[in-house]
């Protein structure tokens, strides 16, 4: 599938190309305009759109937030916008990109499509924005958030070699849970903590997190490891067998002629694009590149399991603690007990969502104005209960 945005201006491509080739990122000039446009959009939402639109949409909440919380609000607006847009586009590409779907194992490592490069460009533009925000507000967010942004930028930038360009829309779907995480945060800030809306959103958050990050993410990680192992074996074999004859072009064993089945020009161009940068991958894949990618992926997957374990522990502690809202006996069918069980279930979901929010680094609502903290025990949120127990 061709890039849906199209090529950059010639002058911009000519300016960027020497630097991109020096960095061994030959596909970057085809997407530099998308990276710049994505960054400008994200930064504009942060600096102008959110501060202007938020007081209009939430006049009873946003104007009364502290400066620190307003900054977090604007950052969450950018995150919500970015995650919704890029996930929608990634799903669209997964379903309609026929050239991508027809790739062989070798093409999934060395091949390229403009549509997957488009997803990479949007992600890179966001992580550049994220690095700038994390650096400017380093004391507020900490070094860990900055390192996370740098690592994510590094991993997605590898696709411009091209390297596992095929998997760009696959792994961006890790972020399918991010919109629900942001909505959870916003509901707390608009004084809807503990509401039914936050409960339903929390249930979706936990379900999507488990489905996308643990099930889908683990499965796709195993698939990409297998593809990279095959590519690495092919590289070692070529370099060993012809050590005295010089470098060997492995492209003949990687790229297929899928374009022979095309009946229109667009299909032929899209299939030709898969091997468009084959001269940059003729020597195979460097071992250090595979090791770096696998290490980064393992760390991210490990963190996902740790975060989910924290959520499970939160639920288990809630059942172990002899709290007032303890579950009723199985044979108790009274409406009052049913209501208490429903309230308990709601609280458990909100506590688990709060645990995930805290583990992923999202700030908890400790910086709300005092007037919003003076709420009755009847409407106390599960987040507040969780925080008091931790103290």
UniProtKB/TrEMBL annotation:
The chain crosses the membrane at residues 35-54, 75-95, 110-129, 141-160, 166-187, 199-219, 288-308. Keywords: Membrane, Transmembrane, Transmembrane helix. Its main location: membrane. Pfam families: TRAM_LAG1_CLN8 (PF03798). InterPro entries: TLC-dom, TLCD. GO terms for cellular component: endoplasmic reticulum; membrane. It is a multi-pass membrane protein. The keyword Transmembrane applies. Residues 68-320 form the TLC domain. One of its GO terms (biological process) is lipid homeostasis. The keyword Nucleotidyltransferase does not apply. It is found in: Membrane. PANTHER family: CT120 PROTEIN, TOPOISOMERASE I DAMAGE AFFECTED PROTEIN 4. This is TLC domain-containing protein. It comes from Penicillium chermesinum.
